[in-house]
Design goal:
Elements: H1 17-38, H2 42-65
Length: 66
Amino acid sequence: MDPALSAGSIIADTSNSNLTSLLIFIGIIVIQLIAVIFEKTRKMKGLAVVLALIAAAVFVARTHYF
């Protein structure tokens, strides 16, 4: 190992991963909500809802099971 690097700087730290996941999840939900509001076709609104549900499932799986 390079002596210029401290051991603590290369250890994977996950202390903020749940907060980061939450912020990304909130961003995705806001984007999908905007898509539902402004989309004209029922097919695209349905796609936005499905994508939001997938994002919710991934968020729950990530924070509670992994």
